[in-house]
Here is the input.
Amino acid sequence: MFDSLSDRLEGIFNKLRSRGYLKEEDVDVALREIRLALLEADVNFRVVKDFVNRIKEKAIGQEILKSLTPGQQVVKIVHDELVHLLGDRNEKIQLAPNPPTIIMMVGLHGSGKTTTSAKLANLFKKQGRRPMLVAADLQRPAAIDQLETLGRQIDVPVYLKRETKDPVRVAEGAVKQAVLDARDIIILDTAGRLHVDDTLMEELSSIKSAINPQEILFVADAMTGQDAVNIAKTFNERIGITGIILTKMDGDARGGAALSIRSVTGRPIKFIGVGEKIEMIEPFYPDRVASRILGMGDVLTFIEKAQESVTLEEAEKLQKKIMEESFTLEDLRDQLKHIRSMGPIDNLLSMIPGLGKQIKNVQIDEREFIKIEAIINSMTPRERRNPQILNGSRKRRIAMGSGTTVTDVNKVLKQYKEMKRMLKMFKGKKGKGGKRFKGLPRFMPF
Here is the structure.
């Protein structure tokens, strides 16, 4: 996410930080480079112009230029202005005072509306709510089938009426059904087009008038850059959107849409899609995204993902095992599963300040995690708990059972020993009271 832009900005800021003294000319040169970097990232020209002017106004002043760390001060100003550009704060879904809350998903074909509708329903379900999906895209039969499949996958009901071609009737019927079934959130997957046209806008306006949704969320492919911004502006002018969901953010190395869309439309980004899996959707936090853009990591999102993956009871059980030095290969397998459930490994590592840059060009093969699990699963319970009994014949049997080699088995055993040694070091850093590991959060899955 934002790799290209982050690289450019990092080079600019490194030059500023390396100077003990800054002149106005130095700041002007840096701002020209920032302007060029943003334009190359496909950020809207007017947005870039206003952004750079605000930074210049704050950065060129005696108290900044004569401070002990002028380069760091300029970076802080850029960070604060990025947060402002992205929307200042996280904007939550506006819930109806009397359920159900109606969320209408709009956008063009290919933006990811149907999948995002299911992702959103899954997110609400995890929060303890009772969502219902509505197949209101009657232009494309495949969209109804897709939503039905996704609904079964996440165990959320899908309201559909194949016999009608009137999306307004479907939407009205869905609201009545939601009330009967005590569903507190309705998510409508509406029709899209290859481009904006009057027929589409009239259909969406009719649905809006009929059911009066609390939220109209525009779904856009972040990788389309300024096209997404311009289309969002048109949708907002024609039907009035309340928020934006940017999909495919994990593949957007430039960030032009994310950095432009709030300023151009005046509407907040509420969620971002960060992968293909159904759980890979995140609330949008401007401060966290600004930190990612500037290469500062995103520890808070990392922590939240860890908390979702590991319960407090599991974490305390793991801590006890580490304290008692009874960490087994079964525990290693379980921790690997927790890590994999948090999302792509390279994305997770990039959230850790300083580490993202170090592993940028390192290819992380997640199949290795699957191989490790297969090897551990091929062991008997006794072998997993007492790996010291593994002799040559046992290792050959494990290799055959997991479809690997004896070398692979030895490699896993070596990694296990290294992890036990590392955990012993953490144990050594704890206080005599035995309460916590220094620097190791309770919820960490490793």
